Amino acid sequence: MLEYLVLYDSESGNTKKIAAAIFSRLPGNSKDLIDINTDKTIPEARVYFIGFCVHRGTCSLRVSDFLGDLSGKAIALFGTCGMGDSPEYYKRIEQSVSAWIESDNQYLGAFICQGRMPQKVRQKYEAMRNEENAKQMDYFIRNFDQALPHPDSLDEEHARVFVDNILKKI
User: Fold this and answer.
1) DSSP three-state, residue 59
2) Which of these, 21, 25, 45, 107, could form a disulfide with 156 (CB 3.0-4.6 Å)?
């Protein structure tokens, strides 16, 4: 059994980037970094760092199913979210995803940061924009533009600090 497993689901590369930062901060050699969508067998670990990209305020079914199957483990979550750089919104995402963790596990906390979105999302906002929803679509477009450089080096450093804090808990 591994000491640490960093398991992630990443569509655009944002969550993979944060997963790599987390993995690099974990001590020792008893660790692995795995894309949940791989055909590779997922090994058992004592501590899981489970990453996800956010869609409609939560994680993918693959991640929620994996979380629901864990028992007696220490679990930390991390994710990337294109929509908004809002601690309140991130807290709602954390609550939504952590709800899949069974009570016999030790939940250690979550780190969520902004991530860039595909260009087709901005094009969709532009195409949807009309007189009635202009204010909302303009907000979405501004948010899209602000998310473009993320996750950046500061986000990666915050992820490493998150790992330091988790290691102090266990």
Assistant:
1) coil
2) 21
